[in-house]
Amino acid sequence: RMETDYNPMELPSNTGFEEDSDYRDFEGTDVKDMRLEAEAVVNDVLFAVRNMFVSKTLRCAEDVAYINVETRERNRYCLELTEAGLRVVAYDFDQTDDRLQTPYHETVYSLLDSLSPAYREVFGNALLQRLEALKKDSQS
């Protein structure tokens, strides 16, 4: 079961990102725009779910975006994406339920892994196919 999609040992301890004002003022946009982040999340795993899209109804902002996902088992969720990670905020599209206290997941992979056995299978098979293709490439 994969909890993170990167190895912290691969990252330099100080990237200098925080103090580099060139990034913060990049043509008046915030680098951490959650709508862009949400679109990237959707594009990354769309092949392994039935349906997934950034909510057009719920307000997206620099610090939060909402993603609707329907798993291959036909379960619907509304996910909240923030700096803290991703979590389920409702069991239907374009909804939020403040009473729902679900854990944050660092990656979309670990969240979907916990919600959908069919996602896990499709994602695993895609990974195997990619590895097989790499193996063939390296042998030719």
UniProtKB/TrEMBL annotation:
Domain GSKIP: 34-134
One Pfam family, short name: GSKIP_dom
An individual GO BP term: regulation of canonical Wnt signaling pathway
Matches recorded under InterPro entries: GSKIP, GSKIP_dom, GSKIP_dom_sf
Region (Disordered): 1-20
Lineage: superkingdom: Eukaryota
Family: Belongs to the GSKIP family.
GO molecular function: kinase regulator activity; protein kinase A binding
UniProt cross-references to Gene3D superfamilies, sorted A to Z: Hypothetical protein (hspc210)
Protein name: GSKIP protein
GO CC terms, sorted: cytoplasm
Organism: Rhynochetos jubatus
